[in-house]
Design brief:
alpha/beta
């Protein structure tokens, strides 16, 4: 199964459930009017197609104001990867896709390879 699009999560209970129910859960947090957010999202979506075991979701921070406090978000975009409910990877604002992919690959191969 490939991720053609990210699930939109619009409240904290849904976000918490998403993280709890997926061994590998990825959140992309953005805001309207953020040019970096909009430019980066298609690149991240394309990259995540290579990692079918990762459940992906998109959170629009203006719709879920509490997300900033819940995940200590001070700037957008923020990319968060959770493994079994624990945050393992965080990138914010300026994301170097090659470095992000290297970190993601390490975690993914360790977690999925361990099955």
């Amino acid at each position: 199964m490939t991720n053609n699009h990210f699930t939109i999560l619009a409240n904290l209970p849904d976000i918490d459930t998403f993280i709890e129910q997926n061994k590998l859960a990825f959140l992309y947090i953005s805001r309207e009017g953020c040019s970096v957010c909009h430019g980066l999202l298609p690149q991240v979506e394309a990259l995540m197609e290579d990692y079918p075991e990762i459940a992906t979701a998109h959170i629009k921070a203006e719709q879920v104001e509490e997300v900033a406090g819940r995940f200590s978000v001070f700037t957008v975009p923020v990319l968060l990867l959770f493994v079994e409910g624990k945050e393992y990877l965080r990138e914010a604002r300026i994301v170097h896709m090659d470095l992000f992919q290297e970190k993601l690959e390490q975690i993914y191969s360790h977690v999925v390879g361990a099955n």
